[in-house]
Structures are given as structure tokens and as C-alpha cells.
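Teaching assistant here, posting this on the class forum so everyone can see the example we discussed in section. The complex has two components, and the goal was to see what a joint structure prediction looks like when all of them are supplied at once.
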Amino acid sequence: MAHAASHSAAHAAHAAHGDHGHDHGHIVIPQRTLLVVFGILLLGTLATVAAAQIEVWFAATFDVVIPQWVNVAVALSIAAVKSTVVALYFMQLRYDNPFNSLVVVFTLFTLAFFLGFTMLDLGSRKALYDYKGSYVTAGGQGNISVPARPGAPAGAEYETIPAGTSIAQFARITAARQAEQTLANGGTLPAQLAVFCAQEIQRLQADGKPLPPYLVKFEQVREQYAAILAKKMGHGHADSAHAEQGASANHARVRTGLTLPEFSQHSSHSKDSGHSKDAGPAATPAGDNPAAK
Amino acid sequence: MTSFPVENSGLGAAADRPYHETYRQAEHFRTQADEFDAVKLGVWLFLATEILLFSGLFVFYGIMRMLHPEAFIHGSSLLDWRWGLLNTLVLLYSSYTVASAVRCAQVGDQKGLQRNILITFVMGLLFLVIKFVFEYAPKYAEGKLPGFWYSYPNWESPYEPLWWGMYWGATGVHASHVIIGMGLFVWLYIRARKLHFGPKHYNAVEGVGLYWHIVDVVWIFLFPMLYLIH
């Protein structure tokens, strides 16, 4: 081996035992190849961003529903091509001892097995018996202690989410509490809470329920949050019938082709409101307007 | 030339020659090439366990997105893909510089090796700064946190705490790999300054390079999966 022969004299003793060393992996990849690979990776990144933008544009322009798998398939295909290029050239698998590639292929096979069978199981549980696909409580069981949220009683380190209330629903309860306290003290609401109040008003009005005092107070000072609400709620008229579509989404979104039964109910009513349907029946009484009690 | 005491240098270690020229493989290897192969296989086996570590997160992602697509779509709309894109470019460039570092070591370009290691380190740092300052900090302040800590009221699907669990779990494990990688680059830089690496001995550069590439590959998948859902 030319490589071994060029070693120092000290090496000779070892080489005498029989030099069967190989030169795997000692290929020097030209700088130009590395640059080309870098360029391909940049193009791939551009492609994956462009694909996502085109998908939104296509769905909006032609008013079609693009199924979820298209988004997943496009994104993963481009990522797979990019990763393959990285593995072949930057990680030198193309020039390397094939045994290393075998390790990679075996790992990917394991990953596919792991992912494929788990999803096959969970995706097909209700194929025979519908109840196996059901959920107990949307978004969490509740009745657990969590770190105290803003506006909790002074000195409290933890507070308890009532049984049947999800963590998501509890976030709205604590937001209402915080907004109530801030408005009572004449303070200014953070952008997130202003949006919350505007959305809460929409939801209550859609359900034909009276506004609790803090939301009435919010209506009086609403003008000072006009800029925030215009930005975050889409149209600036948060109480208009169309505001819900733009609510809390900061860019155009494609309607999904795949939804669970409880969500298809939600989307069919999306023109008015759908919040209490999401939270599960048990969560509704506690979650709707705690401040009104 | 900086000299370095070589523990197993045997007969021919001259004090005026750099470490990478006088380096000899460990006793149980016949040749340096054998040692190089063994090191590389070992690194690849480690990378296999890394892929399996991340595969747990990918399985979690697959299940949760399949069961709660609405939560993932709305959750993703709360991320700004432009920061994700910037971080992708930063990591891709660092992958290029680390591949160049291996090449520099192979052709004995010591200055280029040191420069490329340094650039890679800086890119890792830039990635973390973007991540922490422009992504983690605002999300933390707004309560967009995993399950137990979740307090963001403006959700559209009550399953969104799962999405944030996915987001913080995947990017957190990835960011910890970036931090570990940066530590390794500090180590490489110190050794490169002592002229430890050259055409005949660059195992460490190669191994750390492979690790850094796998961190990049994970991000190549995470970027569209987290930021580009519609």
C-alpha cells in the first residue's frame, strides 16, 4: 500500500506483520464538488419553501382542498433528496467502505419499521370498532397541578386544573382572569390578551351569551388596541362575520382534507364560532366565562 | 513547528515534527488505515443510534399530526418560517465548511482547516442565537409551551399543547446537539492550532464532521415538518 509505505521507519515493524490495510475514505473530494453540493442543497431549500407557498397559492386561487399527504409527500421527498446528497458527498458514503452504508440502510429500515407500524396501528384502530378511535377528553384530562399562571393568588406556586378541563381550556380561563385583573387596575393588555378578549367576545356573541363585566370594559377601551387587532385578527373588524377566518392566523392557510369527526363539525360552523364544541362537554361550563361567576 | 509528546510514538518520533506526522495508530491496529476504518465505523454506529433517537420524535410527530391535523396546522401558522429558513441556510453553510475542513486536513492546509472549524463554530452559535432570541424567547413569553406549562389562550384546536410539545421537544433535542457540536469544534480548533491534524491523521475532524452533518440532516427534515405545514 502506497499509503502505508510512506510512513516513518517506526512503521516498518508493524508493516512486516502483513499490511492488508485499505485506503477507504481517504478520497479527497475536490472543493468544486463540495461547492456544487452546497449549491444543490440551497436549491433544495428554495424548492421546499416555494412548494409550500405554491400550495397555499394554488388552493386559494382555485378554491380547492389539497389533502394533507400532498404537503407531507412534497416536503419529505425534497428533504430525502437533500439528505441523500449530504450523506453521499459531505459524509462521503459514496467513496466509503460500503459497510458504513450498510449501517445507514439498516438504520433507515428500522426507522421505517418503527414509524410505519406505529402509524398503521393508530390510524386503523377504528376500522373495525368505532369506539377504539374515540377520545376521552379533548386535550387532556385536567385535575392536575400546574405551575401558577399569571394572575394566580399571591404566593401560589401551583394551581389545579379542575377535572374535565383541558390544559388548553385552562389557558383561556387564566387569560380571562389576567385580562380582568389588568383592566380592573386600568392597565394595558398585552397584544395576546387583547386578541383573546376580542375572540372571546366573538365566541360569546355567537353562542348568544351575555358578556362578563371585564369584556364590557374591554369594549369601552377597544379603540386603543385597534392596531393590534387589525394585525392579528385579519380584517380590523373583529366582530364582523368574517373575522373568525383570519383570527389568530398570521397568513393564508389551506383548508385540510383530513379532519376528525369533531373537527368537521367545527369547520362547518366556522363562520360563527366553534370553540365550545372543541373543548369537550365537560369543559364548557367551567371554561366559558369564569369571570362572570 | 509545535511539538507534542506522543505516548505511543515508538522509535521514530522526532521532536521537531508535528503530531500528525509522527502519529501512530494504537497497538491493536495493524495500520493507520485500519484504525481510520474502525473509527469511522464506530462513528457511523453512533450516528445510527442518533437517527433512532430522533426517530422517536418523528414517530411522535407522525402520530400526532395524523390524529390532530388541525392542531398542527394552526400551531405551525404561529411559527415564522423565515427564521426557520435563515437557520436552514446557516446550518447548510456550516455543513459545507465542515466538509471543507475535512478536505483541508486531507491536503494539509492547516490555515484552511483552522478557518473552516472556526466558521463552523460561529455558524452553530448563530443558529442558537437566532433560535433562542427570535423563536424560543417570544414563545416562552406567550405561553406557547409544552403540555404542563402551556398557557397560550388563542388556540384553535384544544390539542395544540401537543403541537408545542412536539416543537419544543424536537427543536430542543436538536439544539442540544448543536451545543454539543460547538463544544467539539472548540476541541478541534485547539488541536488544529497545535497541528494535530494532517493528511495521515484526521480521524477526529472526520468523526466530528460526520456528527455535524447528521445534525444538519435532522434539521433538513425538521424545517419543512415544523414550519411549512399548511
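For the discussion questions: Chain A has two domains: 28-119, 145-149+158-292. Residues 1-25, 235-293 of chain A have pLDDT under 50 and may be disordered. Think about how each of these relates to the inputs above.
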